[in-house]
Amino acid sequence: MIQLPNVLESTSLNLCIGKSSAYASILPAFDTALKALINGGELEKIHAAYR
User: Pseudo-torsion of CA 10, 42, 36, 21, nearest 10°?
Assistant: First the structure.
């Protein structure tokens, strides 16, 4: 098996939740939490752990 490096900077990810989904109401909180991870440096720590 050959493992190729995962380059997260160029990997596009999308969260797809329909407007009628029961989870649609949590999107603002999800967005806030994700921004906090990015701004607080936690996302970079997680990324560094898997480099």
Answer: 60
